[in-house]
Amino acid sequence: MGGRVNEDLIKERRKCTFDIKELTHIIDCGEENTIKRKQIDNYILNIKELWDDVPEEYLSHKERYENAIKKAFIVLKVLRQLHTGNIQITDHRTPTNVYSIQDGIFRNVNPLLIHIGLFWSTIAAQASTEQQAEWLQPDSSMIGTYVQTELGHGSFIRGIETTATYDSTTDEFILHTPRLSAYKWWPGGLGNTANACLVMAQLYINGTCHGLHIFLAQIRDFDTHKPLPGIKVGEIGPKMGFNTADNGFLGFDNHRIPRTNMLMKNVQVLRDGTYVKPKHDKLTYGSMLLTRVTLISDLAYQLSKAATIAVRYSAVRRQSPIKSNEPERQILDFVSQQHKLFITIASSHVYRVVGLWMWNSHKRVTADIHEGNMGQLPELHALACCLKAISSRDASALVEQCRLACGGHGYMMASNLPQIYAYTTAAVTYEGEYTVLLLQTARYLVKFWRLAAEHKPLPQNFAYFEDYIKKNFEQWRNSPEGIIEGFKAIVAGKTKAAYDTLQCNLRNGREFEEAWNMASVQLTNASEYSTISRNDIEALQSRYEELLALIRPNAVGLVDAFDIRDEVLCSTLGAYDGRVYERMMEEASKSPLNEDVVNESFHKYIRPVTMKNKL
Ligand SMILES: CC(C)(COP(=O)(O)OP(=O)(O)OC[C@H]1O[C@@H](n2cnc3c(N)ncnc32)[C@H](O)[C@@H]1OP(=O)(O)O)[C@@H](O)C(=O)NCCC(=O)NCCSC(=O)/C=C/CCCCCCCCCCCCC(=O)O
Ligand SMILES: Cc1cc2nc3c(=O)[nH]c(=O)nc-3n(C[C@H](O)[C@H](O)[C@H](O)COP(=O)(O)OP(=O)(O)OC[C@H]3O[C@@H](n4cnc5c(N)ncnc54)[C@H](O)[C@@H]3O)c2cc1C
């Protein structure tokens, strides 16, 4: 769409007091990354076949998938070319990698998301060197997915019922789905796309169960794509979002795979059935850990999209004067609107920085694990659980807040805010449900509280538990350091309260697991335990309002710095030129209900009723 940029946006950009490009480079972790990102953006976004004539909302469930899969294979080809050209495209130091560009191309989810994001990375992390050499060929025929969750079990994965029984006479595993609740359910790309999968199953050797292990299984013929004998596979149907991801179901009827298809980097089954244990019980859960870490950056990116749309719209939208004799104001001038939006910008930066820090920590801990040192794994797991849970829940709430901040127009699919919300809120559940993950972190904290309560030595990271017990916390200070101290006090106080409840339940004769369950609300809910006073809260509030006023002139600059192209934002409300009403009208004209001046339903259903008495 051609035409002038909206006048209000022009003025906002003139008001900006900082160098937008400099902030973009910081977000991208360096100017060279910005340049590379823009090159990839230009390359991919110029591929004509990737753009739709008809908005995807008007397609049927089946058409949506077929359209998405067409685009997915164009993108896959490009990814392969870029890989061959040695361009690092999956660097999570930047939230704006090629993966993010796909948000624009699909407006929904790439059906190959799990193939690219989880299938290959799990093989790379969990398969032996020989297996990797065989399976990670660039021209592989495999299109894979990650198959863990079952109809009956998602959170409690030890309860998974699919079995892999070793048959030493044929040197094979027999994959089997013993009952309906053991059907795999949810894996992305499984419904129609994948011909192979990594499946989590209980390993049995000579009648002994060794727990969950990962197996590579072909499920469809590479040539005809028909399900192999003994495989029942299909798609699970429409969902709140993720509708192009062809999430699927899968059952095995004594399906045989070679012994060498178990992922054997950390654990092995030998030809004679000897089981060689891993160095750490939970290494098999490594893919979940990695995905939880990468999700934090992804959620930061979703927040930056929502903030860009809502801030630009709020600069363009004028409604109500503040004083009755004045013209109508930009809705961005309302302090309550600033409160809704600026926190989203800030949260995006927070999760970007934390996501990067977690990504680097994951790299470091993985390198240690390679050297046989598992010491840092529990802390990384506890942090990843908590941060994934909190960032997904916060991001969903903030995206919804941005949508509401756009009033009625935020309810339009063409604003793209409903799609961003549907995508973001899924992350509260997948890769470990919110409460379940918080309880994993609580388990970790309670362990250290027990040490503190028993006056045993604590690692430096937990010294504040001891400070809390000795009442060594400083008086509240309105400064970043003071706020961090306050948070430490809250964590310590909350952990203590939960621990005390646990102990009380145990003293009353409850078994530990029952006592834990009874304390679980305390284990997940925060309370105020810090030394903050009413006066401090009032001072914090007025500082917050001062900051809103300081940020106001830079609001548009701050979201421009996210540097998200219109083709990726896909929003009538958030485009760079701010031509909101023109775009809305243009999108409305694409509705099939506007194709005929009089829809044929009028003649079939309306007219016979409205004209009945007149005929
Ligand atoms: C952890 C559970 C809840 C419990 O497990 P269980 O075996 O029962 O354990 P317990 O006996 O309770 O013991 C707990 C102890 O184990 C330790 N532990 C647990 N997990 C780990 C771990 N991962 N690592 C290390 N240690 C671990 C724990 O600390 C305890 O130790 P201790 O005894 O106290 O000492 C478990 O059941 C669980 O994890 N449940 C959740 C299940 C889950 O997460 N399922 C996920 C299924 S897959 C999925 O959902 C996929 C979704 C689609 C995602 C698509 C979106 C991806 C977007 C990202 C984009 C990235 C793509 C980028 C592309 C590119 O550019 O590359
Ligand atoms: C969009 C999407 C994509 C997905 N993609 C994949 C995929 O590619 N591969 C795959 O294998 N899976 C996938 N999943 C499945 C996903 O991982 C699970 O749905 C998720 O782990 C939650 O498990 P659940 O559905 O069993 O929830 P449940 O555990 O049944 O949760 C229901 C409720 O019970 C509570 N609850 C459960 N256990 C406890 C407990 N111990 N203590 C306290 N409360 C508890 C929860 O907090 C929640 O409130 C996907 C899911 C979605 C929504």
From TrEMBL:
Q: Residues in domain Acyl-CoA oxidase C-terminal?
A: 528-609
- Residue limits of the Acyl-coenzyme A oxidase N-terminal domain? 19-138
Sites binding FAD sit at T149, G188
Q: Which residues cross the membrane?
A: none
The prosthetic group or cofactor this protein requires is:
FAD
Keywords for this entry? Answer: FAD, Fatty acid metabolism, Flavoprotein, Lipid metabolism, Oxidoreductase, Peroxisome
The highest taxon in the source lineage is Eukaryota
Q: Which Pfam families match?
A: ACOX, ACOX_C_alpha1, Acyl-CoA_ox_N
Q: Where is the active site?
A: E431 (proton acceptor)
Q: Where in the cell is it found?
A: Peroxisome
Q: Which GO terms describe its biological process?
A: fatty acid beta-oxidation using acyl-CoA oxidase; lipid homeostasis
Family, per entry: Belongs to the acyl-CoA oxidase family.
* PANTHER family to which the protein is assigned, alphabetical: ELECTRON TRANSPORT OXIDOREDUCTASE, PEROXISOMAL ACYL-COENZYME A OXIDASE 1
Q: What is this protein called?
A: Acyl-coenzyme A oxidase
**Which organism is this entry from?**
Bicyclus anynana
Whichever gene encodes this chain, its name is: LOC112051253
